[in-house]
């Protein structure tokens, strides 16, 4: 192993020598590779849809596509309008004007429903009439009163078009199920592509000025629904990134400037970071991997890896240059000393992230390809670019660093003595912290509710909570019940079982989760049956035979209404059960869906039950993320442990290294529990960022500790020497990254604030752990040998 380390040291020294002496060629090599990748960025595609989280052959996605092709898009936009008297001529006129304005000017609109055109099923003599509710405009107060009574008696309108007290009415907008550009594909192959992100944004943003024009004190308008929440989220993320990313650069520049006090110490790490990040994005374009919501974590990965590699080399270069006053000698020495550790950190970081390739979530699996590749590109850029830049541009010598260096050396000597001579105190202190952290972990919540990422007083959060409260829900879940045979829906027992299920879940409530509205086939049947019996309310019941069921559904179809197409397939073999629910965290939704599916399977033992819809997709995504990340982190830690044992060449040291690696993770998970920060889609990926940095610093520390212990056979001296060399780089890197991630506190979204606090805290804890706990443990195993001073 020692010979391998020696060979590795020689290789990195030769790279530094070649890059320094052939600086223009080395620079051209780096630029040619990076520019080639960067040139591919214009071909990069964006996909932030829920479908992007699944592989094309994933059964969950296939079920959803089949559902969408059959029944249309299940997402909807809810516009709620409040007024003192909804059933007044003035209010209804304003409602009609708004309805027509939206219908005329909103692109990609599939269907718009309000009191103006909601289904009104009635009978006239022997004729079944299905018309728009306000198809015949009332001309006097008497006709208006009849309409009002008819609306109150229609159970379809309750919690769909009107709230319980009829103080709020809604306009429901359904976007197109398919991208208009793929309609030919739908006709040819029976499938289609969803609307693009640009089209979705165009649709949502076109609604806003229309609502502004119609909003008034006696016609108050709010808007929500899953498409609107997602668009608000995307807009806020974009706004936050425009603030946070420049601030991260400012903080990184300030810290690097304060710690290195040289232009090169600021510029070179940032140059490596920028070209590494752009190259990583170029890799995605080359591999035809789309940029998704998960991909926004990519800059954090690259920042950690690239800044760390560059800072470790420069932190060793400047003292050596100050001492020898020879740039070539200094960079060769720095690269020889830091080369193996940064190679090891790249291998462990990449090895840990390769485990993501097995993830069921497509964008996370893509990270398992892109990030390891980008990690090695960052390493390549660092070892070839920094020597060449140092050769091309002058580096000033400093005259006032000695006093500052002595002060820092004194601090490091004190830390080394305490950690290696007060092991019991230090280990006890860390064990107590672990106990406190474990107590916090017990209280950790697994949930995801993107609405809670917004401030409590944000427009979208207040609007969604209001509509959920007044109308019973802004999102929906769908269950497809497939009888497996044509005309299977005419079965009387089936229809009665469907009615019972719809009634049960229409009054469902559990804690703060409830069902506001259930839409199903039995509503159509009962409306039709009542209309065919002189509109008498006592006949709002199901038909009494299979023949009557078939006949009434046939009459409903003949009436010209296409509402039945959204509930059944053409063969009348399957039907759709839709439930409108409030925007709640996915853990509640998951439990609810499991209960519904279990109930339906019991009621319809001979039918195939499929849970689907975009919100069901999202619940499945979060479930997959949790299981995926738990498995990936486990695999990553095992791989990292094995790699560290092999590369450090010491079994005991490799195994001991996992203690300071695991402690910060346990500490931060415990902190999440104590601060009541949920483990959700935004925070679950934090571990993948921090594991890389934690392992990097531990590798640098252990590599140098082993080297100095072999030389001096004294853990205190080995620790002090390690801190005086790589300790500075670890301190610099940690401070830079802590400052950078704390910029997330400027975000409007709670998830970004949480991420910034947690990652910065993890980095700080990891630094303290490497400076105190790691040498304390090592000094118990690697004791001072006799004859040493």
Would you kindly provide a written description of the structure presented here, covering whatever features stand out?
With 789 residues, this protein is of the alpha+beta class. The chain contains 25 helices and 12 strands. Strand 3 and strand 4 (127-132) form a beta hairpin. The chain is elongated and about 105 Å long. 47% of the residues are buried.
Number of helices: 25
Name the structural class: alpha+beta
The whole-number mean of residue pLDDT values reads 85
Inertia-based shape:
elongated
- Which band does the percent of strand residues land in? 5-15%
Spatial strand order of the main sheet: 2-5-1-6
Calculate the terminal CA-CA distance, rounded to whole Å. 27 Å
Give the arrangement of secondary structure elements.
Layout: H1 2-21, H2 23-38, H3 59-71, E1 77-82, H4 89-105, E2 109-113, E3 119-124, E4 127-132, H5 141-153, E5 168-175, H6 183-189, H7 197-214, E6 220-224, H8 226-260, H9 263-286, H10 298-324, H11 327-354, H12 362-392, H13 402-421, H14 423-442, H15 459-471, E7 475-482, H16 492-506, E8 509-510, E9 513-514, E10 517-519, H17 521-531, H18 546-558, E11 574-581, H19 586-603, E12 608-612, H20 614-648, H21 651-656, H22 658-674, H23 686-712, H24 715-741, H25 750-781
Antiparallel strand pairs: 1-5, 1-6, 2-5, 3-4, 7-11, 7-12, 8-9, 10-11
């Amino acid at each position: 192993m020692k010979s391998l380390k020696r060979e590795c040291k020689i290789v990195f020294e030769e790279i530094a020598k070649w890059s320094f002496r052939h600086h223009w060629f080395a620079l051209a090599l780096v630029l040619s590779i990076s520019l080639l990748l960067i040139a591919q960025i214009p071909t990069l595609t964006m996909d932030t849809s829920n479908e992007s989280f699944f592989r094309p052959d994933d059964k969950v996605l296939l079920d959803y596509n089949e559902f969408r092709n059959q029944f249309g898009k299940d997402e909807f936009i809810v516009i709620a309008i409040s007024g003192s008297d909804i059933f007044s001529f003035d209010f209804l006129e304003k409602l009609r004007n708004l309805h027509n304005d939206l219908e005329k000017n909103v692109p990609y609109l599939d269907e718009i429903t309000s009191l103006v055109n909601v289904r009104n099923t009635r009978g006239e003599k022997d004729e079944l009439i299905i018309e728009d509710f306000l198809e015949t405009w009332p001309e006097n107060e008497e006709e208006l009163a009849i309409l009002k009574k008819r609306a109150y008696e229609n159970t379809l309108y309750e919690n769909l078009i009107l709230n319980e007290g009829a103080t709020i009415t809604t306009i429901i907008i359904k976007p197109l199920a398919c991208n208009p550009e793929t309609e030919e594909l739908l006709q040819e192959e029976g499938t289609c592509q969803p609307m693009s992100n640009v089209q979705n944004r165009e649709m949502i943003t076109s609604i806003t000025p229309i609502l502004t024009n119609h909003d008034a004190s006696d016609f108050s308008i709010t808007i929500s629904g899953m498409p609107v929440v997602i668009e608000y989220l995307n807009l806020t993320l974009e706004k936050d990134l425009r603030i946070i990313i420049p601030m991260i650069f400012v903080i990184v520049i300030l810290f690097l400037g304060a710690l290195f006090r040289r232009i090169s110490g600021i510029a070179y790490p940032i140059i490596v970071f920028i070209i590494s990040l752009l190259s990583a994005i170029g890799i995605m374009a080359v591999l035809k991997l789309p940029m998704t919501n998960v991909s926004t974590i990519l800059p954090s990965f690259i920042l950690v890896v690239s800044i760390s590699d560059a800072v470790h080399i420069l932190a060793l270069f400047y003292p050596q240059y100050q001492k020898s006053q020879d740039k070539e000698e200094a960079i060769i020495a720095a690269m020889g000393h830091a080369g193996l550790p940064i190679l090891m950190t790249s291998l462990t970081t990449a090895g840990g992230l390769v485990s993501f390739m097995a993830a069921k979530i497509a964008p996370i699996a893509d990270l398992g390809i892109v990030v390891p590749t980008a990690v090695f590109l960052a390493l390549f850029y660092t070892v070839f670019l920094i020597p060449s830049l140092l050769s091309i541009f002058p580096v000033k010598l400093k005259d006032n660093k000695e006093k500052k260096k002595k002060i820092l050396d004194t601090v490091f000597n004190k830390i080394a003595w305490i950690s290696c001579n007060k092991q019991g105190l230090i280990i006890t202190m860390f064990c107590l912290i672990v106990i406190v952290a474990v107590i916090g972990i017990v209280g950790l919540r697994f949930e995801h509710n993107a609405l809670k990422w917004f401030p409590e007083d944000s427009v979208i959060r207040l609007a969604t909570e209001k509509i959920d409260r007044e109308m019973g829900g802004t999102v929906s879940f769908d269950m497809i019940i497939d009888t497996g045979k044509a005309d299977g829906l005419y079965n009387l027992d089936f229809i009665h079982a469907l009615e019972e299920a719809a009634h049960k879940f229409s009054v469902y409530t559990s804690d703060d989760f409830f069902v506001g509205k259930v839409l199903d086939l039995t509503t159509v049947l009962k409306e039709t049956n009542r209309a065919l019996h002189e509109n008498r309310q006592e006949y709002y019941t199901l038909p009494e035979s299979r023949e009557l069921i078939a006949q009434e559904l046939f009459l409903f179809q003949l009436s010209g209404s296409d509402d039945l197409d959204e509930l059944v397939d053409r063969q009348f073999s399957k039907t759709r059960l839709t439930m409108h629910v409030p925007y709640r965290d996915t853990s509640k939704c998951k439990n609810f869906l499991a209960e519904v599916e279990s109930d339906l399977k019991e009621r319809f033992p001979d039918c195939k039950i499929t849970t689907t819809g975009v919100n069901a997709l999202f619940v499945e995504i979060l479930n997959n993320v949790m299981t995926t990340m738990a498995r990936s982190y486990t695999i990553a830690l095992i791989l990292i442990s094995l790699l560290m044992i092999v590369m450090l060449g010491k079994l005991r040291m490799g195994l001991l290294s996992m203690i300071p690696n695991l402690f910060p993770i346990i500490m931060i998970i415990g902190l999440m529990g104590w601060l009541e920060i949920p483990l959700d889609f935004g925070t679950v990926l934090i571990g993948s960022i921090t594991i890389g940095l934690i392992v990097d610093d531990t590798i640098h520390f252990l590599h140098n500790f082993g080297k100095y212990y072999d030389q001096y056979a004294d853990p205190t001296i080995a620790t002090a020497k390690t801190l005086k060399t790589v300790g500075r780089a670890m301190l610099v890197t940690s401070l830079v990254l802590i400052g950078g991630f704390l910029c997330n506190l400027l975000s409007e979204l709670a998830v970004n604030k949480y991420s910034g606090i947690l990652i910065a805290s993890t980095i700080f804890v990891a630094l303290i752990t490497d400076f105190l706990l790691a040498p304390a443990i090592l000094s118990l195993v690697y004791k001072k040998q006799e004859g040493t001073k």
